[in-house]
């Protein structure tokens, strides 16, 4: 009886971790955003009530930013249910997680806490601690003005506690303040009446002022170009070309600094002709990015085969365009660097990964067998798990392979699933004995494959708990990267 | 030709979404000398080959063929109809060189053509029938029709369906009842037509089934591992499992469509292709499918579109068939069905064809029925 309970617990935790890595609450190919959000909400609630300490510890397991914020929110909301020990660990985990989250996510979280009227002592202390440690509060006060103001009010802070001059006047009394000494504040003040000042502000803030001053989109993009962040520049390139802002459009994206997954998404979004022209450049950039991720592990994985899903369902949704295909492409380049001998197997039978297009059926079974036949050391399957030609063939092939053809288990099989199946409340599995792990960015692939040994149905909770505890220990002792 | 066959078409594993099962058909080699298009007009034709404002195009399909067997270019690359057909066209007359096209009636309208129009109106003026029958023919059937959007889950199932390479057709099952079958000559045609399947009409029966039945089960493959020792064995077993599905599908699932005998009418010759309409023999208790098919000289199916009749519709069809078999003689038809004439008239009345009988005759039979019971 205990064994069953143990196993159930381990399964629950793994299921949640997989979901929290893969799901972003956006629509997927098979389910819309509402279904995704509803399912995730249920899983969060379930974990919080049943396994509170493990729930907090999942912050260390690489869950995506949205779910990390959701976990923190829930923990802060229900502090009353935690005992003293839990509270201590949770506090440290939350502090650490907040330091690693992107700034805008944290402000979103603070706003959500305010709206949900979560204002306990612990929440206030955590907010205060985070705000005081910000390296450039003046900049954030301009960029996230209302969220910043709300957070300060909500945390019952005195503005004087924050580093930086004139914050008080900027936030609470700008009409009486006259000119500011701080250049950022002064620019913002001038932007209310001076067109030129608009272009010295951060892009998101300037956009509002541009509308106020009736600046045309083309002129705005042309002149705001120096203020754009890398992500914004990349995002705006296509639309800039449409409105005729040559400066932004012609600005060739700096491929060498993009992350692997981002780069794969960028490449797959290009029109075919451009892709053909820039083939060498893109391939080199993808290789370099993969090598950067692989680091010292490059070439250490031995013989690796990968089954990569480019069926129609890899086209994702309008919100997550081609996301599963992007992950598969990035994984392809990463595995190429990690393995000594690598053989990629795309489901469509294509051999040119850069030209991968999401179409056709998911006939995983035969492709997996093609991979296994070479008897590699590891077989990695990147797929959403909707094996439909025919249904369940992959599971059968894997079962027979394990039972009859490779009983010693020389080939390690891991399934990485970039999609959370909202209806099934899990990242779809291929077979009960094959570990399935959710994946969001291909950069996490090496850690996830290591973690895969826990993701079979045979793991008990004790083993998993030990792993997670050690993970928490390591994570908390790591130095917080100095942002100042 | 009395039956439909799927010669040259292979069944592939179906995909299930809720209560909808879509079974793809893959063609061994595509037919390129006959092509289908969603309509005659491309969305963005820079040359405006055939100005849509000049003519009326109902929402139907267009079939295009060549009589010398050469390939029909895909829509958008082809020359269109001769410019001369457009009145006052300044363009020089295009040379069509042995290419021709025909337009189908839209699916919704076509259904009415499938059923009543295939039957002969009375040739002998029996005294029971009103003059309207001879003047106007059979009345339109006012059956409620449900387009694909109304069929719960069909739109989603079509959206997420993954098209097989070389796929030229699909069988739509709702709650595992065959709702319709579509076959196209070329995979590109299928790809173009796939999204329009949701605009097809479905009978009341199918619409009702979506509400009555829940999800249908997946057919999961099961491999028997005891005889597998090598990879080659495993591959053979996989192939066997796939063939099992194909056989099972053709025998059991599509049996209602393929085993039944049909009456083929309305031949339209398009060079080596023949367009025919078909209707079943209306055997009680069996699935009834009507539709139209294009096949070539060898009987190979190039185009197929079927519609499943509901029980009411097939009862009406049976009635019409019996009447037309006996040349609309009420007594003889009633005798062949083993019932009395008043009972037959009651059925005709119930089927919505009461207006075909002379009013006084109808009243007479109604009175007889109410007096003696039916």
Walk me through this protein's architecture.
The complex is a heterodimer of chains A (484) and B (374). Chain A is mainly alpha-helical and 484 residues long. Chain A is 56% helix and 5% strand. Chain A is built from 25 helices and 5 strands. Chain A has helices at residues 2-22, 33-50, 52-57, 65-77, 84-100, 103-115, 121-132, 137-143, 145-154, 167-172, 174-177, 183-191, 195-198, 203-212, 217-224, 230-243, 246-250, 260-269, 272-277, 279-294, 323-338, 364-373, 393-405, 445-451, 461-477; strands at 303-308, 341-346, 378-382, 412-417, 436-438. Chain A has a 5-stranded parallel beta sheet with strand order 2-1-3-4-5, with helices on both faces. Chain A is globular, with a radius of gyration of 25 Å. Chain B is an alpha+beta fold. Among the domains of chain B are: 9-32 and 105-118 and 143-309, no CATH class; 329-372, no CATH class. In chain B, the strands form 3 sheets. In chain B, strands 1, 2, 3, 8, 9, 11, 12, 13 and 14 form a 9-stranded antiparallel beta sheet that branches. Chains A and B meet through helix 22 and helix 23 of A and helix 6 of B.
Give the strand tally of chain A: 5
User: Rg of chain A from C-alpha positions?
Assistant: 25 Å
CA(first)-CA(last) distance of chain B: 40 Å
H-E string of chain A? HHHHHHHHHHHHHHHHHHHHEHEHEHEEHH
- Total number of helices of chain A: 25
Rg result of chain B = 24 Å
Q: Into which percentage range does the β-strand content of chain B fall?
A: 15-25%
Please name the defining characteristics of this protein.
heterodimer; A: 484 residues; mainly alpha; 5-stranded parallel β-sheet; 25 helices; 5 strands; B: 374 residues; alpha+beta; 9-stranded antiparallel β-sheet
Summarize the structure.
With 484 residues, chain A is mostly helical. Chain A contains 25 helices and 5 strands.
Helices and strands in order:
The complex is a heterodimer of chains A (484) and B (374).
Chain A: H1 2-22, H2 33-50, H3 52-57, H4 65-77, H5 84-100, H6 103-115, H7 121-132, H8 137-143, H9 145-154, H10 167-172, H11 174-177, H12 183-191, H13 195-198, H14 203-212, H15 217-224, H16 230-243, H17 246-250, H18 260-269, H19 272-277, H20 279-294, E1 303-308, H21 323-338, E2 341-346, H22 364-373, E3 378-382, H23 393-405, E4 412-417, E5 436-438, H24 445-451, H25 461-477
Parallel strand pairs in A: 1-2, 1-3, 3-4, 4-5
Helix pairs in contact in A: 1-2, 1-25, 4-5, 4-6, 5-7, 6-9, 8-9, 18-20, 18-21, 20-21, 22-23
Chain B: E1 9-11, E2 15-17, E3 20-27, E4 34-37, E5 62-66, E6 99-103, H1 107-114, H2 131-136, E7 146-147, H3 154-160, E8 167-174, E9 177-183, H4 187-193, E10 201-202, H5 204-212, H6 231-253, H7 255-258, E11 262-270, E12 273-280, E13 289-295, E14 301-308, H8 311-325, H9 330-337, H10 341-353, H11 359-372
Antiparallel strand pairs in B: 1-3, 2-3, 3-8, 4-5, 5-6, 7-10, 8-9, 9-14, 11-12, 12-13, 13-14
Helix pairs in contact in B: 9-10, 10-11
